[in-house]
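Structure tokens please, single chain.
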Amino acid sequence: MNFLNRAKMIFILLTVAMLSLFVISAGAEEKAEQKPAKQVFIPCHPPQADYSQDGKLFVNANQDIPMLVLLETGTEQKNTQIKLPKKAYDVIFIDDTRAVVSYGPWGELAVVDLKQSIVNKPFKVGESAEAMCKTSDGKILVIDSEKNKVILTDPKTQKIIKTYPVKGKPAQMRWLVPDLKIEIADAEGKTISAFKLTQQTDKKGK
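Here you go.
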């Protein structure tokens, strides 16, 4: 191989090497610029709606007018509308025939007999009453975003059992361990707190 051909070969090899380095560098920069995928916070039940435990009923809190819409998911798919005294922020089943609604800025909850279409008198739980989760024995965890706390209450006795202070603005919840540990997130789905229900606190969250 003469000098000219050898020079051409060296030039080609150097060019290939430089292109390879450029591609590797560009790929590394692209990976560095990629942001991690945003994790979606999935609450303990669908927002403003819920399914009965047997899956035969679906209830939705209408966000435009004070009304619950109950759908029987069997072959007939019967649709029932239940009027409320005011708009509900959230709704959750406590058994196969009853649900609890939260009345948002009024800070109240109410038990609704879905079979009889009867809305019981509301009871006060906080400054606000928003998203809810339930325990297996029918107790309710409800967010009070005005006071940045989560309230555990029993709709049967209409009494507050415990109050859990939260750092940040709570908006949604989900179970980490059913009936034991709950996770709290803000409206954007960012986790701001997690605690066990057995955590020592009093009714005022102290």
